[in-house]
Amino acid sequence: YQLTMLALLGLVSALNNSLFYTALKMTYVYNAALLHYFASVLAIILIAFVPIFHETLTPVDIAAVLMGFVGLAVITLPNLQGSSSKKWIYFALGSACFYSLEMVFGRIVSTHGVAPNVSAFVKILAQAAIMPIVALILGQSIKICEKKERFKIVIAGVLLFTSFILYFSGVQVVPVKHSAVLGYVDRIGAILLGAYFFKERLTKNVWR
After folding, report:
1. For the segment 147-190, what is each residue's pLDDT rounded down to a tens digit?
2. Do 176 and 40 contact (CB within 8 A), yes or no?
3. Alpha-carbon gap, residue 119 to 16, rounded angstroms
4. Cα–Cα distance between 66 and 74 in angstroms, integer?
5. Chain centroid to CA 201: how far?
6. Residue of 173, 177, 22 lying closest to 100 (CA atoms)
7. How far, in Å, are 4, 85, 144 from residue 34 at the CA level?
8. Tens of pLDDT along 39-78?
9. Are 23 and 134 contacting, i.e. CB atoms less than 8 angstroms apart?
10. Which residues have a Cβ under 8 Å from the Cβ of 192 and sit 6 or more positions away?
11. Quick one: CA torsion of 55, 58, 61, 65, rounded to 10 degrees?
12. Are 97 and 12 in contact (CB under 8 A)?
């Protein structure tokens, strides 16, 4: 059971990131990040209606997710209308679907005796193995031309692995219904980093 759940965790996390990074190549960070976090709503739907994922939901839990959904809709829809190409939307929504499954499977492996470092290793290994395949299927290049890009990838890998360990340590005690809502918080970081590193213009609608 543990191996099956770990394999599914690795698969959905790799597909999530493959689609999300593809969306990032097509639009602004804040567009992709905001749409990506519809995953929190989808995760709540999964634990509410899929028996094997079931968690007890209180009215407060449901209200929190609905408020998050409404907030995302309010700030995302105007950005979607202003986009010249809508193709990235499908990739961002696809990543949201797989991310919701990733949250659920992450909780399952963390509460069934799998150590956080093991879950983190399996997740990053699966991404390293599967994401290049998805990239080739989507017609993207996987060549790394500059040495500085390789360094950035190594740094990103270390940061990801560390964040995965912290995440799996957290969801050992935090149920999906709470971690899904907390997931709304890190979109703020994504938006700020996008503005700082990529000089993306933040409209008043983003901060509403």
Report:
1. 777 787 888 888 888 988 988 888 888 888 777 766 656 666 66
2. no
3. 16
4. 12
5. 23
6. 177
7. 31, 17, 28
8. 888 888 888 888 888 888 888 877 877 777 777 677 666 6
9. no
10. none
11. 90
12. no
Contact assessment for residue 143 and residue 192, using Cβ atoms and an 8 Å cutoff: no
Tokens of 177: 């219904």
For residue 182, the SS3 value is helix
Q: Is the dihedral of CA 22, 27, 28, 32 positive or negative?
A: negative
Q: Give residues with Cβ within 8 angstroms of 135, minimum separation 6.
A: 18, 141, 142
Instruction: Report the candidate in 36, 23, 12, 21 with the shortest Cα–Cα distance to residue 96.
Output: 36
Supply 35's token pair. Answer: 């749409």
Say which residue the tokens 């190409």 belong to: 85
Look up residue 180 and give its two tokens. Answer: 């899904």
Any idea which residue has 């500059």 for tokens? 146
